[in-house]
Amino acid sequence: YRVNRKLTFGANTRGIMKLSK
Question: 21: number of CA atoms within 13 Å, CB side?
Answer without folding.
Answer: 6
